[in-house]
Amino acid sequence: MATDPSAPDSPIQLQGQLLLADPSLKEGTFHRSVILLAEHQPAHGAYGLILNHPTGKTVGELLTGKEFEALQHLPVHDGGPVAHDELTFTSFWWSQKLGLRWALRISAEDAVNHSRRPGRVVRAFLGYSGWSAGQLEGELQRCSWIPTRPKPHLLGQQHDMELWAELLRSVSPLHRILAEAPDDPSLN
């Protein structure tokens, strides 16, 4: 359970939650990002994957070889700015007891096996999002991120730029207004 990030001495446990980029993050990699925070240990840092930034490329355009044939049509997403030259596979599924589950950095063979299992969604990611110890906590105190818990329907939604607005609308009435506001309100 997450604790209040505005309390200076409270430990923040966000593993398994989604981080929605605050609307003030208007430029760069994290603009309107939805990040699954797959690993989080305040003393060691955090690891996450941007779920909603498709690159427009497929695995077959980036990797050749027999082991990637079954994955050649799999869309590639921008996972974040760290190690952006590395392609990894991740499988996601929903557990009634545990909520959103995942297997990170799995092999191509495991990705194929996961894709054949009902209820599993396999994604390919270029790079990842990473934070050093204390960095994410500082960003949360500056209100750069809006943490939220994933809901069962997440895996059935399109993981594109619209995902950010859809999820932000469900946080609160204020967030609904922010989700529907244009990037530059002065252009209205």
Characteristics of this structure?
188 residues; alpha+beta; VC0467-like; nine-stranded mixed beta sheet; 5 helices; 19% helix; 34% strand; globular; disordered N terminus
Which SSEs are present, and which pair or pack?
Elements: E1 18-21, E2 34-41, E3 45-50, E4 54-58, H1 59-62, E5 75-78, E6 82-95, E7 99-106, H2 108-115, E8 121-131, H3 135-141, E9 145-148, H4 162-169, H5 173-180
Parallel strand pairs: 5-8
Antiparallel strand pairs: 1-2, 1-9, 2-3, 3-8, 4-5, 6-7, 6-8
Helix pairs in contact: 4-5
Summarize the structure.
With 188 residues, the chain is of the alpha+beta class. 19% of the residues lie in helices and 34% in strands.
Strand content: 25-35%
Task: Report the CATH C-level class.
Answer: Alpha Beta
CATH superfamily: VC0467-like
What's the shape?
globular
Query: Helix content range of the residues, please?
Result: 10-25%
Oligomerization state:
single chain
Number of strands: 9
SS content category = alpha+beta
Distance N to C terminus: 40 Å
Alpha plus pi helix count: 5
The fold-level CATH name is VC0467-like
Which second-level CATH architecture applies? 3-Layer(aba) Sandwich
Unreliable stretches (pLDDT < 50, length at least 5) are 1-6
Largest sheet: 9 strands, mixed
Question: Could you tell me the radius of gyration in angstroms?
Answer: 17 Å
Mean pLDDT: 89
The number of domains is 1
